[in-house]
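== Fold encoding ==
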Amino acid sequence: MASPNNNSPKHAQSPYVSSKIGDNDVHEPNKKHEVHETVKKLTEKLSATLLKISAKEDLVKQHSKVVEEAVTGTLPKFHSDHTNTLSLS
């Protein structure tokens, strides 16, 4: 499974996705195995995508907060130190 961006604590838990296929749904053993493998792969892809969406939603919330602070004038002032990195003043 793809490694999502784990910047927030809530990403420690991944969304749970499940699928059930009954024994009567697929009669051929090879076809049954193929269906289960396909479902497994799709479930993993869906879970990874849900994690990515959650991480992007968190980023949008952070950006919205920064924009709101900038518009209201409450954004903390930044200054540059001698190592070319930004630090809070």
